[in-house]
Amino acid sequence: MATLKLLVVEDDLASLELMTEVFTSLKAEVHPVSDSEKAADMVNREKFDGIFLDLEMPKVNGFDLARRIRQSSWNKSVPIVVVTGRDDRRTMQEAFEIGATFFLQKPVDRVKLTGLFRTIGARYSRIDASTPEFPSTRR
Description:
The chain is an alpha/beta fold. Helix content is 38%, strand content 17%. The protein is built from five helices and five strands. Helix 1 packs across helix 5 (110-123) and helix 2 (36-42) packs parallel to helix 3.
């Protein structure tokens, strides 16, 4: 699997550190950001393979940031994982309406993060498309 480039946007430093540590241990290129305005700028300048996004943030909240991500030319189709302490159906519904791909409820843990990382990574994995006429060079 190619190295995944992930943006993690979270204003709670303990959660940000946990997600960064987990994804780094899985060999991802992690860009941790606690400032949502900085993240809004980054999604218009850089392409990411996945974005983990807290909803409750000062300045630009997660809903507005997700809308900006979906409008950016670089990241309009990137998987967005909404990470939130909210547990109501309305929040989940609104997150999916604005373009979230996955919804992860806090507290986050290593197992859930690893599973989502692998799901995102599967989207970018190489498929062996060899045929008898064109055999694969992989062994």
